[in-house]
Amino acid sequence: MQLSNNNIDVDVDVLNDYDLHIADLLRDLFEIFDTSTNIFCSVYYSTSHRVIMQITSIYMVLQNYLSYEIFNNTIFAMIEKIKKYWGEIPLIYYIGLIVDLKLKFDALDEWLQVIYNEDQIKIEEIKNKVNSLLYILYNIYKEKYANNINLIKSSSTTSSSSFYKSPLEMFKSRKKTTTSSPNNTTDINRYLSVETIPFEDNEDFDILEWWKKQKIKYPVLSIIARDLLTVPVSIVASEAAFSAGGRVVSKKRCNLSPQAIEAVICLKDWSLADKRLYDHVREAELVADTENLKISRYKWIKDSSPSLENND
User: Fold this and answer.
1) Phi-psi sector, 6: left (phi>0), alpha (psi -120 to 50), beta
2) Which end of the chain is more exposed for a tag (fewer CB within 10 A), N or C?
3) Which H or E run includes 274?
4) CA-CA distance, 51 to 99, in Å (whole number)?
């Protein structure tokens, strides 16, 4: 196609359907990295239990794109780069996944198949290490917080006095107690025996709030979960907080009182509340998309269009 301007002919390449399709595929390819970055850098919800899910999502997307020969060299290079940084994933991230009631060992087994390309020896090795680390942490926390745990148990016993219960409530409580697990059963065994919560039924599920309410049932494991889930996986948010403080307290505004600094920073944070609300909705959609991606797995891009290498 030629365009004429001031008697000068210029050749212009017009995008055809093939070019637009390539652009759509590239957009979808990079979207998973944008989404993962936003999740890892968040400070308004727990992130440590989401690492394995996002790494799995990245691997699944890259594997799907290998069905296109035009992307092969790029995708292979990206996979090698990911293996360089995430080839040995810290075990603590697996523990974070396990203390998520929606995931636990069921998700771990499924997602390790994707990350390590169904290498059963490697997968079993990781699962054994994770299981051992979980019990090591349990024993350490049980010894460290023994006094707190005993206090929680004694307070729960006191608050459940039968004096305030109706006869039916007393019967139900006694029956539940007699049919429960043996006293020597650990928090871990009781927790792992509980069924996972479906994603679609719990879009507003607050994992930290859930563990807070379960501190009597799981006195040791609830403390482990609290410590794991409250630590962000990225230092970006911390650096951003210091940068925000540096912009407020500058050389020309170094006489601000602590109250004024706090008010300015809080005002800025509150002004972004609507955006964070939207991000929360987007996160819920992401979880649903991840489930759909897991179901479709290798068929996602293969069924989207004819093979690109056959197009001229």
Assistant:
1) left
2) C
3) helix 273-296
4) 13
Residue 14 phi/psi, 5-degree rounding, is: -90, 135
CA distance 91 to 79: 21
CA 34, CA 311: separation in Å to the nearest integer?
A: 29
**C-beta atoms surrounding 95 within 10 Å:** 20
Q: What pTM was computed for the model?
A: 0.69
Tokens of 291: 């489930």
d(CA 140, CA 134): 10
Q: Is 242 exposed, middle or buried (0-12, 13-18, 19+ CB in 10 A)?
A: exposed
CA–CA gap between residue 280 and residue 20 (Å, rounded): 31
Residue for token pair 């996986």: 233
Q: What 3 state SS string does 95-145 have?
A: HHHHCCCCCHHHHHHHHHHHHCCCCHHHHHHHHHHHHHHHHHHHHHHHHHC
> Looking at this protein, which amino acid is placed at residue 124?
E
Taking a C-beta distance cutoff of 8 angstroms, is the pair 93, 135 a contact?
no
Contact between 81 and 92 under an 8 Å Cβ cutoff? The reply is no
The residues of the chain scoring below 70 in pLDDT are: 1-13, 150-184, 199-204, 275-281, 283-284, 287, 290-312
Residues 6+ apart with CB under 8 A from 295: none
Half-sphere exposure of 105 (CA within 13 A, CB side): 16
> 138 CB contacts (<8 Å, ≥6 apart)?
186, 187, 188, 220, 221, 224
Q: Which pair of tokens denotes residue 143? A: 């010894």
